[in-house]
Amino acid sequence: FTSEFLNDYKCSGIPNHQIKLKLGVPIMLIRNIDQAAGLCNGTRMIVNALTKYIIVATVLNGNTMGETTFIPRMSLTPSNSDIPFKFQRRQFPVILCFAMTINKSQGQSLSHVGLYLPRPIVTHGQLYVALSRVKSRKGLKILILDDQGVVSNTTRNVVYQEVFENI
């Protein structure tokens, strides 16, 4: 395989070969670096300084909120890859984080939440998780689209009965 192929290859859990960051952008860790210090997968931060080997950032959530931390470059290996060999990429274990999924937000308390629902939620309990992340009703904004893509004020919390068959 050529280096161009490997550099363009995208797989879950590994940042792209080239990551473009600048001061002030929000980022999220995608690896556990130091759990005791609160640097876990899903920790959100703001970039304060960039060097070739270190990102200096301020933590935005968790017990260490407001603290400055240093994120090093790491050798990252994909856990499940569909290519017939193992490879690693030396990269910062972060991604840009202007938005996140409902699953990634679980366990966080946020002052502002914007929820975009282009279709009904189909996983049991996800609507509750999404709505319960925000600290106050004033910080919650929801955009719901109906089946025709028109803005609506209602959605369905779809629960498939098969979920309850083995309970």
Structural class: mainly beta
User: How far from one another are the termini?
Assistant: 48 Å
β-strand amount: 25-35%
| Helix content bin | under 10%
Order of helices and strands: HEEEEEEEHEHEE
User: Low-confidence spans: pLDDT under 50, at least 5 residues?
Assistant: none
- Report mean pLDDT, rounded to a whole number: 82
Task: Please summarize the sheet with the most strands.
Answer: 5 strands, antiparallel
Strand order of the largest sheet: 4-3-2-1-7
The best one-word shape is: globular
How many helices? The count is 3
Q: How many strand elements?
A: 10
Measured on Cα atoms, how large is the radius of gyration? 19 Å
Write down the domain tally. Answer: 2
Can you describe what's shown?
Helix content is 10%, strand content 26%. With 167 residues, the protein is mainly β. It has two domains: 3-96, no CATH class; 102-164, no CATH class. The strands form three sheets. A five-stranded antiparallel sheet has the order 4-3-2-1-7, with no helix packed on it. It has a three-stranded mixed sheet with strand order 8-9-10, with no helix packed on it.
Give a brief description.
The chain has helices at residues 3-8, 102-105, 126-131, and strands at residues 26-29, 44-50, 54-59, 68-72, 74-76, 89-91, 94-96, 113-117, 140-145, 151-152. It has 2 domains: 3-96, no CATH class; 102-164, no CATH class.
Which helices and strands appear, and what pairs or packs with what?
Elements: H1 3-8, E1 26-29, E2 44-50, E3 54-59, E4 68-72, E5 74-76, E6 89-91, E7 94-96, H2 102-105, E8 113-117, H3 126-131, E9 140-145, E10 151-152
Parallel strand pairs: 8-9
Antiparallel strand pairs: 1-2, 1-7, 2-3, 3-4, 5-6, 9-10
